[in-house]
Amino acid sequence: MNSFTLERVARATKKFVRKAIGCSCLEDYSVEKRRMMWSMVKPLEKRHIHNCKLLEDRLKMLEYMPKNAVCAEIGILRCEFSESILEITQPSKLHLIDIDPNAINIAKEKFKDKIASGQVEVHLGDSAATLMAMSDNYFDWTYVDGDHSYLGAKRDLEASRLKLKTDGLIAVNDYVYFSVSDFKKYGVLEAVNDFCINHSFEMLFLAFQGRSYNDVVLRKITSEIAI
Ligand SMILES: C[S@@+](CC[C@H](N)C(=O)[O-])C[C@H]1O[C@@H](n2cnc3c(N)ncnc32)[C@H](O)[C@@H]1O
Question: Which of 77, 80, 95 for a ligand 1 pocket mutation test, highest count of atoms within 8 Å of Cβ?
Fold first, then answer.
Protein backbone atom coordinates (compact mmCIF):
# COMPACT_ATOMS: atom_id res chain seq x y z
CA MET A 1 0.00 0.00 0.00
CA ASN A 2 1.32 3.45 -0.82
CA SER A 3 1.18 6.30 1.70
CA PHE A 4 -1.87 7.91 0.07
CA THR A 5 -3.89 4.67 0.37
CA LEU A 6 -2.64 4.16 3.93
CA GLU A 7 -3.81 7.64 4.91
CA ARG A 8 -7.26 7.04 3.39
CA VAL A 9 -7.61 3.74 5.22
CA ALA A 10 -6.53 5.37 8.49
CA ARG A 11 -9.05 8.19 8.01
CA ALA A 12 -11.88 5.77 7.19
CA THR A 13 -11.01 3.63 10.21
CA LYS A 14 -11.00 6.64 12.53
CA LYS A 15 -14.37 7.75 11.12
CA PHE A 16 -15.79 4.23 11.63
CA VAL A 17 -14.60 4.16 15.26
CA ARG A 18 -15.98 7.64 15.96
CA LYS A 19 -19.34 6.60 14.52
CA ALA A 20 -19.36 3.37 16.54
CA ILE A 21 -18.81 5.26 19.80
CA GLY A 22 -21.23 8.02 18.81
CA CYS A 23 -18.67 10.78 18.70
CA SER A 24 -18.55 12.35 15.26
CA CYS A 25 -16.38 15.38 14.51
CA LEU A 26 -16.27 18.14 11.93
CA GLU A 27 -14.36 16.09 9.35
CA ASP A 28 -17.13 13.46 9.32
CA TYR A 29 -19.81 15.92 8.15
CA SER A 30 -20.58 16.36 4.48
CA VAL A 31 -20.03 19.72 2.79
CA GLU A 32 -23.83 20.19 2.66
CA LYS A 33 -24.23 19.48 6.37
CA ARG A 34 -21.47 21.94 7.29
CA ARG A 35 -23.04 24.62 5.11
CA MET A 36 -26.42 24.04 6.77
CA MET A 37 -24.88 24.21 10.26
CA TRP A 38 -23.17 27.53 9.59
CA SER A 39 -25.28 30.42 8.49
CA MET A 40 -24.33 32.94 5.83
CA VAL A 41 -22.82 36.17 7.16
CA LYS A 42 -24.79 39.36 6.58
CA PRO A 43 -22.95 41.25 3.84
CA LEU A 44 -21.63 44.75 4.41
CA GLU A 45 -22.75 47.52 2.07
CA LYS A 46 -20.58 50.00 0.23
CA ARG A 47 -21.16 52.59 2.99
CA HIS A 48 -19.37 50.27 5.41
CA ILE A 49 -16.24 49.72 3.32
CA HIS A 50 -15.72 52.56 0.86
CA ASN A 51 -13.13 54.27 3.12
CA CYS A 52 -11.35 51.02 3.97
CA LYS A 53 -7.61 50.81 3.41
CA LEU A 54 -5.73 47.50 3.14
CA LEU A 55 -2.64 47.05 5.30
CA GLU A 56 0.07 44.43 5.21
CA ASP A 57 -0.24 43.40 8.86
CA ARG A 58 -1.43 44.47 12.30
CA LEU A 59 1.86 46.11 13.25
CA LYS A 60 1.34 48.47 10.32
CA MET A 61 -2.20 48.99 11.61
CA LEU A 62 -0.79 50.15 14.95
CA GLU A 63 1.08 52.92 13.14
CA TYR A 64 -2.32 54.40 12.22
CA MET A 65 -3.80 54.23 15.71
CA PRO A 66 -3.81 57.44 17.76
CA LYS A 67 -0.66 58.21 19.75
CA ASN A 68 -0.70 59.18 23.42
CA ALA A 69 -4.18 57.67 23.65
CA VAL A 70 -6.32 55.91 26.25
CA CYS A 71 -6.79 52.36 25.00
CA ALA A 72 -7.50 48.78 26.03
CA GLU A 73 -6.44 45.36 24.84
CA ILE A 74 -9.18 42.81 25.45
CA GLY A 75 -7.55 39.38 25.68
CA ILE A 76 -3.79 39.61 26.20
CA LEU A 77 -2.53 35.99 26.49
CA ARG A 78 1.30 36.33 26.65
CA CYS A 79 1.25 40.14 26.24
CA GLU A 80 3.21 40.01 22.98
CA PHE A 81 0.84 42.36 21.17
CA SER A 82 0.56 44.53 24.31
CA GLU A 83 4.30 45.18 23.93
CA SER A 84 3.75 46.28 20.32
CA ILE A 85 0.89 48.58 21.33
CA LEU A 86 3.12 50.23 23.93
CA GLU A 87 6.10 50.53 21.64
CA ILE A 88 4.33 51.74 18.49
CA THR A 89 1.46 53.86 19.81
CA GLN A 90 2.99 55.17 23.09
CA PRO A 91 -0.38 55.32 24.90
CA SER A 92 -0.97 57.60 27.87
CA LYS A 93 -2.96 54.72 29.39
CA LEU A 94 -3.26 51.07 28.34
CA HIS A 95 -5.78 48.82 30.08
CA LEU A 96 -4.92 45.11 29.77
CA ILE A 97 -7.90 42.82 30.34
CA ASP A 98 -7.99 39.02 30.58
CA ILE A 99 -10.09 36.38 32.30
CA ASP A 100 -7.07 34.09 32.77
CA PRO A 101 -4.95 34.74 35.89
CA ASN A 102 -1.85 33.42 34.06
CA ALA A 103 -2.15 36.14 31.42
CA ILE A 104 -2.55 38.79 34.12
CA ASN A 105 0.51 37.47 35.98
CA ILE A 106 2.56 37.69 32.78
CA ALA A 107 1.41 41.30 32.35
CA LYS A 108 2.26 42.16 35.97
CA GLU A 109 5.75 40.73 35.52
CA LYS A 110 6.42 42.18 32.07
CA PHE A 111 5.10 45.69 32.74
CA LYS A 112 6.06 46.12 36.40
CA ASP A 113 7.52 49.59 35.84
CA LYS A 114 4.73 50.79 33.58
CA ILE A 115 2.12 49.60 36.10
CA ALA A 116 3.97 51.47 38.84
CA SER A 117 4.04 54.66 36.74
CA GLY A 118 0.31 54.33 35.93
CA GLN A 119 0.74 53.94 32.16
CA VAL A 120 -0.50 50.33 32.28
CA GLU A 121 -3.39 48.98 34.34
CA VAL A 122 -4.27 45.27 34.47
CA HIS A 123 -7.75 43.82 35.00
CA LEU A 124 -8.53 40.19 35.80
CA GLY A 125 -12.08 39.34 34.76
CA ASP A 126 -14.62 39.20 31.98
CA SER A 127 -13.81 41.81 29.37
CA ALA A 128 -17.29 43.18 28.67
CA ALA A 129 -18.06 43.50 32.39
CA THR A 130 -14.69 45.18 32.99
CA LEU A 131 -15.25 47.70 30.20
CA MET A 132 -18.77 48.46 31.39
CA ALA A 133 -17.41 49.43 34.81
CA MET A 134 -15.34 52.23 33.21
CA SER A 135 -16.42 55.82 32.56
CA ASP A 136 -18.41 56.73 29.45
CA ASN A 137 -16.66 58.65 26.68
CA TYR A 138 -13.33 57.27 27.91
CA PHE A 139 -11.46 55.25 25.26
CA ASP A 140 -9.73 56.56 22.15
CA TRP A 141 -9.60 52.98 20.96
CA THR A 142 -9.98 49.37 22.02
CA TYR A 143 -8.46 46.16 20.65
CA VAL A 144 -10.96 43.27 20.78
CA ASP A 145 -9.26 39.85 20.93
CA GLY A 146 -10.92 37.92 23.78
CA ASP A 147 -13.82 35.50 23.42
CA HIS A 148 -14.10 34.63 19.71
CA SER A 149 -17.63 33.26 19.81
CA TYR A 150 -20.38 35.33 18.17
CA LEU A 151 -21.90 36.34 21.51
CA GLY A 152 -18.50 37.00 23.09
CA ALA A 153 -17.36 39.27 20.26
CA LYS A 154 -20.75 40.98 20.17
CA ARG A 155 -20.56 41.78 23.91
CA ASP A 156 -17.02 43.21 23.59
CA LEU A 157 -17.98 45.30 20.56
CA GLU A 158 -21.06 46.63 22.32
CA ALA A 159 -19.19 47.43 25.55
CA SER A 160 -16.43 49.15 23.54
CA ARG A 161 -19.00 51.25 21.65
CA LEU A 162 -20.63 52.40 24.88
CA LYS A 163 -17.29 53.47 26.42
CA LEU A 164 -15.71 55.01 23.33
CA LYS A 165 -15.17 58.72 22.65
CA THR A 166 -17.31 60.01 19.77
CA ASP A 167 -14.49 59.70 17.25
CA GLY A 168 -13.04 56.55 18.86
CA LEU A 169 -11.90 53.43 17.05
CA ILE A 170 -12.51 49.73 17.66
CA ALA A 171 -9.85 47.37 16.31
CA VAL A 172 -10.84 43.71 16.13
CA ASN A 173 -8.51 40.74 15.69
CA ASP A 174 -9.53 37.45 14.01
CA TYR A 175 -12.03 38.83 11.53
CA VAL A 176 -12.41 35.31 10.21
CA TYR A 177 -15.21 32.76 9.76
CA PHE A 178 -13.23 29.64 10.62
CA SER A 179 -10.11 29.19 12.74
CA VAL A 180 -7.57 26.89 11.12
CA SER A 181 -5.59 26.52 14.37
CA ASP A 182 -8.54 25.69 16.65
CA PHE A 183 -10.34 23.86 13.80
CA LYS A 184 -13.63 25.47 14.74
CA LYS A 185 -15.94 28.21 13.60
CA TYR A 186 -15.36 31.69 15.02
CA GLY A 187 -18.18 34.22 15.39
CA VAL A 188 -16.08 37.37 14.98
CA LEU A 189 -16.80 37.99 11.30
CA GLU A 190 -20.57 37.76 11.84
CA ALA A 191 -20.43 39.86 15.01
CA VAL A 192 -18.42 42.61 13.26
CA ASN A 193 -20.71 42.72 10.21
CA ASP A 194 -23.86 42.78 12.36
CA PHE A 195 -22.30 45.50 14.51
CA CYS A 196 -21.42 47.69 11.49
CA ILE A 197 -24.93 47.25 10.05
CA ASN A 198 -26.83 47.75 13.32
CA HIS A 199 -24.77 50.67 14.67
CA SER A 200 -23.65 52.37 11.44
CA PHE A 201 -19.93 51.72 11.78
CA GLU A 202 -17.53 51.55 8.87
CA MET A 203 -14.24 49.76 8.30
CA LEU A 204 -11.22 52.03 8.14
CA PHE A 205 -8.56 49.31 7.86
CA LEU A 206 -8.32 45.65 7.01
CA ALA A 207 -4.90 44.31 8.02
CA PHE A 208 -3.85 40.92 6.68
CA GLN A 209 -2.43 38.04 8.68
CA GLY A 210 -0.75 34.98 7.19
CA ARG A 211 -3.35 32.44 8.30
CA SER A 212 -6.24 34.86 7.63
CA TYR A 213 -6.59 35.98 11.25
CA ASN A 214 -7.08 39.45 9.85
CA ASP A 215 -7.67 42.64 11.84
CA VAL A 216 -10.22 45.32 11.11
CA VAL A 217 -10.55 48.83 12.51
CA LEU A 218 -14.05 50.28 12.88
CA ARG A 219 -15.31 53.84 13.27
CA LYS A 220 -18.78 55.37 13.54
CA ILE A 221 -20.03 56.66 10.20
CA THR A 222 -20.33 60.40 10.64
CA SER A 223 -21.44 61.53 7.24
CA GLU A 224 -23.05 59.61 4.45
CA ILE A 225 -21.57 60.46 1.08
CA ALA A 226 -23.22 59.76 -2.21
CA ILE A 227 -21.74 56.55 -3.56
C1 LIG B 1 -6.16 35.07 21.25
S2 LIG B 1 -5.74 35.38 22.91
C3 LIG B 1 -5.23 37.09 22.86
C4 LIG B 1 -3.95 37.31 22.12
C5 LIG B 1 -3.34 38.69 22.20
N6 LIG B 1 -4.31 39.75 22.00
C7 LIG B 1 -2.24 38.80 21.14
O8 LIG B 1 -2.53 39.31 20.05
O9 LIG B 1 -1.13 38.35 21.42
C10 LIG B 1 -7.31 35.49 23.67
C11 LIG B 1 -7.28 35.83 25.15
O12 LIG B 1 -8.60 36.22 25.51
C13 LIG B 1 -8.85 35.79 26.83
N14 LIG B 1 -10.32 35.74 27.02
C15 LIG B 1 -11.20 34.85 26.50
N16 LIG B 1 -12.44 35.15 26.89
C17 LIG B 1 -12.36 36.26 27.66
C18 LIG B 1 -13.31 37.06 28.38
N19 LIG B 1 -14.62 36.79 28.36
N20 LIG B 1 -12.87 38.13 29.06
C21 LIG B 1 -11.54 38.43 29.09
N22 LIG B 1 -10.60 37.71 28.45
C23 LIG B 1 -11.00 36.64 27.74
C24 LIG B 1 -8.13 34.45 26.93
O25 LIG B 1 -7.84 34.14 28.27
C26 LIG B 1 -6.89 34.69 26.08
O27 LIG B 1 -5.79 35.09 26.86
Answer: 77
